[in-house]
Write a structure and sequence with these properties.
By secondary structure, this protein is of the alpha/beta class. It contains five helices and four strands; from the N terminus they run E-H-E-H-E-E-H-H-H. Helix 1 packs across helix 4, helix 3 packs across helix 4 and helix 4 crosses helix 5. The protein is globular.
Length: 153
């Protein structure tokens, strides 16, 4: 069983319900791993996202989602924990909602895409190289279609 924790640092009317976020996250995880995993999804405002983006990516400005995979290699005592701590994703509600409007997408569909995208990053997928981007985008499309959403690209 996957454990999805939701932290909300914004008004709840600016984001989907916690149960919806969990549903999307579990769908991604179900398709990618048989391990019981634990993740946290934190929904933040632009100020918090700017701070995180600056501190951890050394980039200025706000972004829609950041993924923070858990790095067990830096722990001196290796304790086998179940469920496996996969990591955290942080989503900026204002950015996701603004992107949905700008891209003429249904907000709920864009939120599902951002959650899917963030979790795939936790699972080790990336899009820096075109070949990797094709793989990641294909997985995103498959997951989103299984949730009833159209291709986000």
């Amino acid at each position: 069983m996957h454990h999805i924790f939701i932290q909300c640092a914004v008004p709840k009317n600016t984001m989907p319900a916690a149960g919806q976020l969990r549903k999307w996250a579990k769908k991604v995880l179900k398709n990618q791993t048989t391990e019981d995993v634990e993740i946290t999804i934190r929904i933040v405002d632009p100020l918090e996202m700017i701070k995180l983006n600056t501190q951890y990516r050394h980039k200025e400005g706000v972004t829609n989602v950041l993924s923070f995979p858990y790095d067990s290699e830096n722990i001196t005592i290796n304790i086998k924990k179940k469920p496996l701590l996969l990591g955290d994703i942080v989503i900026c509600a204002d950015v996701v909602n603004q992107e949905a409007i700008a891209q003429e997408k249904k907000p709920i569909a864009h939120w599902a895409h951002i959650v899917t995208h963030g979790i795939l990053h936790l699972l080790g997928y990336d899009h820096e190289v075109e070949a990797d981007a094709i793989i990641m985008e294909s997985l995103e499309i498959t997951v989103l279609e299984s949730l009833g959403f159209s291709n986000p690209y």
